Amino acid sequence: MEQNPSRRVFLIAAAVGAGGLLTPASAAASGTRQAASWTASTRPGRLAPDPFTLGIASGDPAPDGFVLWTRLAPDPLAPDGHGGMPSRDAEVTWQVADDERFRRVVRSGTATARPGSAHAVHVEVEGLRPGREYFYRFRSGGHLSPVGRTRTTPDRATTIGSFTFAAVSCAQYEHGYYTAYRRMAEQHPDLVVHLGDYIYEYSGGVYTAAQGNVRRHVGGKLQTLADYRVRHAQYKTDADLRLAHQGSPWMVIFDDHEVENNWAGDVPGTPVPGFEARKAAGFQAYYEHMPLRASAVARGRHMKINRRVAWGSLATFHLLDTRQFRDDQPCGDGMRSGCDERLGQERVMMGEDQMKWLASGLGASPATWNLIAQQVVVGQRDYHLGPGRELNVDAWDGYPADRDRLLRTLATAASGDPVVLTGDAHVASASDLTADFEDPDAERVGVELVSTSISSDGDGYHDAARDAALLDENPSLKFLNERRGYIMCTATPEALTADFRTLDYISRKGAPARTAATFTVPAGERALT
């Protein structure tokens, strides 16, 4: 498919590659009545700068609608974080249509972009038909945005034959080009699930890829709301990322780098004062730049991202938060051997309330597939070859008692095969989740699919001998790949198939994507084949 992307993806890619603009003049040239009615009356030579430099997005689909997002930013990297917008409200009109030429507009309206929200708008569209493809666009200041494609979910009672979704994570801007986002968009998934580390908070050049950075962050380490806004804006100036948002609805959750590396609850990841303010700023900027519903609006140091989205009777997504409620990492964090502190029964990753929420949702879900989207590796991973053990205590290995509670919750789910979707690791992997990782014959309670990074750590590598040794060291682990890429999944009533898509390089543009491995989870078996 990546060799012959669909006409629709090609048209969107052409628009993004040309700067991401569908101008009023080009809209009128389409010859449609709706496009003509949206042509600016102001003479082109007097138009203000284009405000849609950061693109458009949709997300959190429902049977009757979805969220539409854009942010007005004619000067996206302006140091004050306001994107070159004046300190006053601006009107943004929007349309949703059945067709990409907007001959049949089915919903429209006006939203107010306010300075206090960095002139971002979040439109929660309702009243649409379930299980349908739609197209949307915005207009402001005499400019038209690009046209986006999105869709509603099927009604919960609807049985569907299949749907596709991509799982992605970890996109350090400096480490490489976002070709993986473009290759993913060319496959036209019904949905994209972003598992965290959408941005990175480091100063330019601090977090360096093995082959050296190919581009540079603007500004220093993120501290203020303006800093976080500018960093988000810089990431969204990337044409490949804008294309990926434009072609599919997204569901997003944050991990640590949206605020600060390895933060945990109210504990900062670094001993720099002012973490509460940084956390609040990071949360606000995250909401301002993501297609999230109003229920996720940041409230100071708190933000609600755990939620559920059903895809007909076929799948239910349970999106988790493994940062806000966790105890501090044991033994000073990082890779550790012999860390007894991690074994404390009281230590939690998700918090008691969220664990109950997950258990309740799994128990009530009628879906064939329960897809648990979360941030850090669940399965036990011993990174030390030979006697002894070395574990990453920022992942669930630092919270084994709470992991046991999670695995029991998965094991007792009345229906629906649990599949955990994970980010963070920068290494693609597939594994069985078992009731006891020390017992090779233990009951299989689900599977875990870990997406590699979009760009973090640069080109990556392939060390077949080390991978074989790690697989031997960890019997539940079935696959490893250290290249960049994403996972493309197809769910049907009979099976869930995961294609691990990888790129050989991202230090220059244009790499093709290939399928490094394919795994299937047959319905009812809770194990990889």
Radius of gyration: 22 Å
Q: How would a textbook summarize the main sheet?
A: 7 strands, mixed
Taking pLDDT < 50 over at least 5 consecutive residues as the criterion, the unreliable ranges are: 1-36
Number of helices: 10
Query: Which bin fits the share of residues in helices?
Result: 10-25%
End-to-end gap? 24 Å
Mean pLDDT, nearest integer?
Answer: 91
Give an overview in words.
The chain has ten helices and 23 strands. It is of the alpha+beta class. A seven-stranded mixed β-sheet has the order 12-13-15-17-19-18-20. The protein has a six-stranded mixed β-sheet with strand order 11-10-9-21-22-23, covered by helices on one side. Helix 1 packs antiparallel against helix 6 (239-247). The chain starts with 6 loop residues before the first helix and ends in a 7-residue tail after the last strand. Mean pLDDT is 91; it is low at 1-36.
Element layout with pairings:
Elements: H1 7-17, H2 24-29, H3 33-37, E1 56-62, E2 65-71, E3 90-97, E4 105-113, E5 120-125, E6 133-140, E7 143-144, E8 148-151, E9 163-168, H4 179-186, E10 191-194, H5 225-236, H6 239-247, E11 250-252, H7 275-288, E12 307-311, E13 315-319, E14 335-336, H8 352-364, E15 369-373, E16 391-392, H9 400-411, E17 417-422, E18 428-434, E19 444-450, H10 464-473, E20 477-481, E21 484-491, E22 495-503, E23 513-522
Parallel strand pairs: 9-10, 10-11, 13-15, 15-17, 17-19
Antiparallel strand pairs: 1-2, 2-5, 3-4, 3-6, 6-7, 6-8, 9-21, 12-13, 14-16, 18-19, 18-20, 21-22, 22-23
